[in-house]
Amino acid sequence: MTALARASRSTELSLVGMAVIWGVNFSVMKYGTEAMVPTVYNALRMGIACVILLAIAYAQKGLRPSAADRKRLLGLGVLGHFIYQMLFVSGLALTRAGTAALVVAASPAAVAIVARAGGHERLPMRAVWGIILSISGVMLVVGGSVQADGTAHLVGDLLILAAVVIWAFYTTGLVPLAQRVEPAQVAAWTLVGGVVPLYFVAAPSILKTDWSAVTPLTWGAVAYSGVLAMVVAYLVWYHGVRAIGPTRTAMFANLQPLVAVIVAWILLGEVPTLFQGFGAVAVLGGLYLARR
After folding, report:
1. How far apart are CA 220 and CA 226, in angstroms?
2. What are the residue boundaries of the structural domains of the chain, listed by start?
3. pTM of the predicted model, to two decimals?
4. What is the pLDDT of residues 117-172, one digit of tens each?
5. How far is the CA of 143 from the CAs of 78, 92, 132, 150, 256, in angstroms?
6. In terms of DSSP H, where are the helices of the chain?
């Protein structure tokens, strides 16, 4: 195995770990947003992540982003860490954790379509078929959600789907920057761009929060979502975008549903429907097909 092949394999294994962390995070965040006002929970976890990533970026030796690149990163941060997170957290509060994870699995298809439209990547035919299979799987998942819960969770599902579209534009927008800016710098500056407007929105709820009522388990959920899901996993994500491209990196997000559905079943009692099972198989099949 060549050094390049070993590096690619190492990147892919780290992306599998990222997918596991994010898969578990759906149930963690579902619990956290039920125990605390969603905007407050999101502000806390993103604030923690922002402080850690800024410290890493400051301590990191090497080239820092130029003033022009910092402006671009801050702008992308508004898109990927403010708008995306508002849609995602609001949607998660209105639907099942497992269903949300399965809808998020549409992100590779959305990223590939946006990347192709923007001229960032060319798609081989097998990737096109993988995208079609993944989209079909997501449609089965949403259909299974409606079958199980009626239209009660449909708004949440649609908000999650809107978040996926935003994430696709965010990810493809990072491509030229990721080639010349270190992952920690990308993560830190984009997160600053998202955290600042988020705290303006969350400030009234933060001031009204009874902090003495926040349990240790809720703080644990905040820590998991802030440190593992937003620092460790995001650094792996940015490294993947830089090393193997946005489409292949995004394809690993499709491993999240399997982890998320199993964890939500065990911890939250969310029993998946038959349609969702078929949808998960289609989504994972699309991942396999696109990577061959």
Report:
1. 10
2. 13-291
3. 0.81
4. 766 666 677 777 777 787 777 777 766 666 566 565 778 888 998 999 999 999 88
5. 31, 17, 17, 9, 19
6. 3-35, 38-59, 67-77, 84-93, 97-104, 107-117, 125-149, 154-178, 183-208, 216-223, 233-244, 246-251, 256-268, 274-291
